[in-house]
Amino acid sequence: MSTDLSGMRSAQVARAAGVNQQTLRYYERRGLSTEPVRSPGGHRLYPPEAVTVLRVIKAAQRLGFSLDEVADLLQTGRHRHGDTDAGLQTRAAAKIAEIDARITDLQVMRASLITAMEAGCDDLMVCATTDSCPLPFADLARLPVYTADNGDVD
Fold first, then answer.
1. Tens digit of pLDDT for each residue in 95-117?
2. Are 50 and 58 in contact (CB under 8 A)?
């Protein structure tokens, strides 16, 4: 493959960025990457920065950003005029807070599962209906069940 990336075709760009061609086209449809120019023969021809954009999108996804969030980040970067509150710093801080909350939730889930293992829970249905069940759904399993038909308790 040539080191000159200008005028690259879809397969070349996708390969260089580590994605497949369907992903490349999907990102175009979503507006994450710009529509390429066409050759006289109708082939898509991408500028050198197309590979960088794709790599940035994939890196941002690995950091936990959704494609909508990536789109916002790319849009903000393209239209930023001295606004420091809307860029990566603010969004990264918000993402870190989300990750920290997920870690906390995962630690609670882990602790509950360890407690269930230590208590010898072997059957979810049996455990859910006993008072000694350490899992959080035990209280929910003992609540009255309402039917969708009339709201009566079964």
1. 999 999 999 999 988 988 888 88
2. no
Count other C-beta atoms under 10 Å from residue 60's C-beta. Answer: 21
Under DSSP, the state recorded for 86 is S
Domain count, the chain: 1
In a domain, 106, yes or no: yes
Query: Which contacts of 68-74 are long-range, i.e. CB under 8 A and separated by 24 or more positions?
Result: 69/95, 70/32, 71/30, 71/31, 71/32, 74/32
Query: Of 80, 68, 34, 69, nearest to 54 (Cα)?
Result: 34
HSE-CB for 88 with a 13 A CA cutoff: 7
> What does the pLDDT read at residue 47?
92
**Is the residue at 25 inside a domain?**
yes
